[in-house]
Amino acid sequence: MKNTKTGSCGTPVSSTIIKVVDTETGRVLGPNEPGELLVKGPQVMKGYLNNEEATNETIDSDGWLHSGDIGYYDDSYVVNHNTTNRPYCWADTVEQTLLKRLV
């Protein structure tokens, strides 16, 4: 598979913004600095149905979804160390990685 990086979960899908923040201070981190992965884009959920408390715990006032996952980015890819056991499909590279591990 072209344009992949072993251990990464691929590149963000179109119109997706990713940022990584320090889990204690909320400071935005730079490349290769591990922290919590935050996601923003038109495909990100608006919130939990009939559960404002859960929505407010997950999506901040600026619209960033706090994944709870620790990861980092480099020049081209996002590397995600999933701490919540929630499945993500960022790109086809995620599916390919999972399939390889299952076989």
UniProtKB/TrEMBL annotation:
<dbReference type="GO" id="GO:0005777">
    <property type="term" value="C:peroxisome"/>
</dbReference>
<dbReference type="Pfam" id="PF00501">
    <property type="entry name" value="AMP-binding"/>
</dbReference>
<feature type="domain" description="AMP-dependent synthetase/ligase">
    <location>
        <begin position="3"/>
        <end position="49"/>
    </location>
</feature>
<comment type="similarity">
    <text>Belongs to the ATP-dependent AMP-binding enzyme family.</text>
</comment>
<dbReference type="GO" id="GO:0016405">
    <property type="term" value="F:CoA-ligase activity"/>
</dbReference>
<keyword id="KW-0576">Peroxisome</keyword>
<dbReference type="InterPro" id="IPR000873">
    <property type="entry name" value="AMP-dep_synth/lig_dom"/>
</dbReference>
<keyword id="KW-0436">Ligase</keyword>
<protein>
    <recommendedName>
        <fullName>AMP-dependent synthetase/ligase domain-containing protein</fullName>
    </recommendedName>
</protein>
